[in-house]
């Protein structure tokens, strides 16, 4: 493609006004705390047995562990009373039994909690992917690819790590704190009162931390998504960036968003440091209060030295679980911020389907008074009228930014037109519903993704129940069977990331075979041969003709010879149809298409090396 901003599709690589607008995208929604808790409760309801088992085993392990302090206190009393070494045997054996039982119960409980967390996360992740795949592409484009990618990668990874590591530890810590406080009350209610001076300090510390951490971590996740989007934008449009010498501008944008993400991360570290200094103060106050209370109670004979020792050990044993729970608030806050972003997408309402979706009568396409603008006041299409007969192959031709791709995407349902109507098979596209529209139209662009896995499964994405014979027939129908049979394991060959790497031509062959398997009445090829090179483009043009056989075809023509093979050529300029007719008719008419054809013909003179004809960009 020629190095230019793709104003046709409404996307940009950071050039011009597009870069300024990139930082202010319409991001996908983020769920509120109430919505996130409601979603988690709904997911947990389906795993009641596992939830009850995990909580019960953790409670059992924590309760057994609380016996350690009273046993140590009993040993102190026995020593003070000078009962002799033999009296220590039973308490010592019980300490060993308690340690073993606590270790076993804690390990089992942690495993159950981790399993519960992984199960819930898997369900949430599946719901997120299912909903994300059904989002209108127009909505995803408005948000930017980085927002969605950061949620399905960074946020999921962060939550998964918290589920495996933080959640079991956090659960144990909370239970230990609650049961230890109950143990202090059992020893003597005044020991529980002695803990109270530390509580306000801890509460104020937590409130101070949460008040600052929630917005900081949420903002950090958003900043990370913006940075990822800019990286994808710059790398994906590298050729355009280099062609327009925008390297410095894009480097500056990446540096700016990186600095924003780093600044927010440093703010988080500052919050954690201040948080721990406040916790250390609470520990000092609480332990001092317990020791003073124990001294007075032992002095007046209310409790034994062993009981006071047990109380001090109880409070000292709270240091680790309290610190662990509050330290893990850092991970919990980060995971919670990621969770709200996942739930925000997974709870989006599904695309509305009509109660009685209509069925197209044939493969005809009728566009009436169609207009569209990605930005208000800057229309890309204006008053477009076009009728395509069933089975007709129409080529859309025009300079970059003429509106070809936008028209193709509107017909395919990727975008909703700003004005006008589109009818497929005599039925308004709005009456078909999203599912009906996907069955009626298939769009193949020049960017084809090869999914990791066996080649046969990649093909079956278009028709899950297809047999090997049907797959072979589809490949043969587009001229791809020869190279597929030459693969190491044929249809069973693993392709995509980590497998056999397909060439650009082979990947497009695969897309055309999927088109044959999907068998829609209308197919749109959006410059599907653009990146294949001259020889590959000729091969794919022949394959495209075979794939379109028996169905209506619209081709966004990148190579003029491809347009010449169409039944009709439609020429767009500045969002309007300026010419329409067969290749021969338009060449004879001497208009814009004839000028494009003449320019290509001149490029094919003998003194010039053969080159793929490309439509020159204007302006």
UniProtKB/TrEMBL annotation:
Keywords: ATP-binding, Cell inner membrane, Cell membrane, Membrane, Nucleotide-binding, Transmembrane, Transmembrane helix, Transport. It comes from the Bacteria. Residues 54-334 form the ABC transmembrane type-1 domain. InterPro entries: AAA+_ATPase, ABC1_TM_dom, ABC1_TM_sf, ABC_transporter-like_ATP-bd, P-loop_NTPase, Type_1_exporter. The chain crosses the membrane at residues 49-72, 92-117, 170-187. The keyword Transmembrane helix applies. It is found in: Cell membrane. One of its GO terms (molecular function) is ATP binding. Residues 365-599 form the ABC transporter domain. Coiled coil: none annotated. Its main location: membrane. CDD domains: ABC_6TM_exporters. This is Multidrug ABC transporter permease.
């Amino acid at each position: 493609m020629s190095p230019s901003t793709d104003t046709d599709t409404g996307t940009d690589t950071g050039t011009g006004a597009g870069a300024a607008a990139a930082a202010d995208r319409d991001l996908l929604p983020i769920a509120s705390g109430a919505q996130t808790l409601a979603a988690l409760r709904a997911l947990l309801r389906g795993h009641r047995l596992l939830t009850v088992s995990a909580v019960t085993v953790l409670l059992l392990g924590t309760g057994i562990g609380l016996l350690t302090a009273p046993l140590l206190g009993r040993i102190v009393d026995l020593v003070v009373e000078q009962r002799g070494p033999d009296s220590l045997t039973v308490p010592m054996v019980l300490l060993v039994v308690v340690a073993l039982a606590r270790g076993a119960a804690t390990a089992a409980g942690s495993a159950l909690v981790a399993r519960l967390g992984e199960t819930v996360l898997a369900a949430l992740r599946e719901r997120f992917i299912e909903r994300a795949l059904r989002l209108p592409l127009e909505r995803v484009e408005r948000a930017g690819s980085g927002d969605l990618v950061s949620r399905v990668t960074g946020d999921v990874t962060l939550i998964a790590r918290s589920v495996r590591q933080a959640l079991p530890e956090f659960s144990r810590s909370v239970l230990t704190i609650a049961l230890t406080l109950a143990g202090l009350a059992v020893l003597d209610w005044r020991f529980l009162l002695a803990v109270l001076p530390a509580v306000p300090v801890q509460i104020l510390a937590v409130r101070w931390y949460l008040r600052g951490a929630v917005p900081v971590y949420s903002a950090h996740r958003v900043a990370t998504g913006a940075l990822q989007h800019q990286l994808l934008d710059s790398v994906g449009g590298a050729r355009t960036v280099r062609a327009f010498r925008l390297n410095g501008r894009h480097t500056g944008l990446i540096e700016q968003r990186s600095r924003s993400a780093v600044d927010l991360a440093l703010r988080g570290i500052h919050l954690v440091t201040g948080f721990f200094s406040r916790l250390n103060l609470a520990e000092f106050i609480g332990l001092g209060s317990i020791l003073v209370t124990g001294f007075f109670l032992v002095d007046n004979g209310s409790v034994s030295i062993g009981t006071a020792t047990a109380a001090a050990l109880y409070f000292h044993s709270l240091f680790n679980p309290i610190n662990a729970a509050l330290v893990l608030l850092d991970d919990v806050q980060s995971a919670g911020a990621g969770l709200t972003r996942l739930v925000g997408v997974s709870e989006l309402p599904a695309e509305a389907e009509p109660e009685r979706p209509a069925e197209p009568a044939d493969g005809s396409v009728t566009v009436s008074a169609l207009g569209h603008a990605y930005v208000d006041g800057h229309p890309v299409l204006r008053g477009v009228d076009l009728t395509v007969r069933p089975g007709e192959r129409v080529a859309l031709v025009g300079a970059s930014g003429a509106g070809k791709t936008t028209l193709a995407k509107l017909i395919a349902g990727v975008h909703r037109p700003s004005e006008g109507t589109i009818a497929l098979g005599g039925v308004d596209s709005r009456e078909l519903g999203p599912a009906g529209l996907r069955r009626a139209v298939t769009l193949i662009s020049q960017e084809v993704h090869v999914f990791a896995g066996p080649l046969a499964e990649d093909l079956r994405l278009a028709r899950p129940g297809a047999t090997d014979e049907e797959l072979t027939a589809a490949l043969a129908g587009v001229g791809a069977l020869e190279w597929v049979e030459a693969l190491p394991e044929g249809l069973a060959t693993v392709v995509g990331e980590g497998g056999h790497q397909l060439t650009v031509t082979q990947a497009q062959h695969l897309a055309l075979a999927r088109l044959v398997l999907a068998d829609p009445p209308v197919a749109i090829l959006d410059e599907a041969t653009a990146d294949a090179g001259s020889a590959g483009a000729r091969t794919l043009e022949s394959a495209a003709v075979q794939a379109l056989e028996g169905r209506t075809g619209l081709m966004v023509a990148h190579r003029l010879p491809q347009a010449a093979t169409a039944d009709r050529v439609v020429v767009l300029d500045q969002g309007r149809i300026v010419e329409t007719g067969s290749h021969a008719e338009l060449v004879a008419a001497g208009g814009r298409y004839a000028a494009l054809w003449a320019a290509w013909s001149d490029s094919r003179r003998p003194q010039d090396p053969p080159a793929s004809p490309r439509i020159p960009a204007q302006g």
